[in-house]
Amino acid sequence: MPAVLKTAVPKRYREFESHRFRHFTKETNMVERYLFLDDERSPGDVTWCALPSAKYAVVRNFDEFTRHVLTFGVPKFVAFDHDLADFHYKVMLEENSSFTFDDGDLKKTFNYGPEKTGYDCAKWLVDFCEERNVKFPDFVVHSMNPVGGLRIKQYVEDAKRHLNI
Predict the structure, then answer these.
(1) How many domains is the chain built from?
(2) DSSP readout, 87-125?
(3) Residue 26 has pLDDT above 70, yes or no
């Protein structure tokens, strides 16, 4: 009877679980994965900032981003785009949008609508790393939205400094 209890959890499930969670301590190396978040572009399309030469997993939205990290662990590098839906571009370009930008200071008057942005992905990854005591990966923001891109960069840099991730 005890032998039956030992095999109650299939071996493949135990292996999957150990694979999933092996990345969540500071003692282990980060996953050698490069993650590219953008709703339209591919890594080769980005010429205005330096991306490490590597093979990237490309994710297009918040759900794909979180699913990828939960499945494969924290990547070694993340390239963030801010606007992940056409709606965000329309808001950015509207004459009377709710953006406020003054001398580099960001004010909390943004209204990007119902869709999650790259900023939401960055916040989620900060929380994920903090909860698991994992170092935040190296990153770059390649967004064409200067306000949104600055928000991501400032949020992550502040979190890394204050949360020691």
Answers:
(1) 1
(2) HHHHHHH-TT-S--EETTEE-S-----SS--HHHHHHHH
(3) no
In the predicted structure, residue 106 carries a pLDDT above the cut 90: no
Nearest CA-CA partner of 61 in 38, 29, 42, 44? 38
Query: Exposed, middle or buried, 12 (CB in 10 Å: 0-12/13-18/19+)?
Result: exposed
pTM: predicted TM-score of the whole model, two decimal places = 0.69
Would strands 105-106 and 101-102 be described as parallel, antiparallel, or unpaired?
Answer: antiparallel
Listed residue (82, 30, 23, 85) closest to 54, CA to CA: 30
CB 153 within 8 Å of CB 94: no
Strands (E), 12-150: 31-37, 56-59, 75-80, 101-102, 105-106, 138-141
* Spatial contact of 156 and 139, defined as CB atoms under 8 Å apart: yes
Q: Which domain holds residue 137?
A: 2-163
Tell me: pLDDT of 100 over 80: no
Residues 6+ apart with CB under 8 A from 164: none
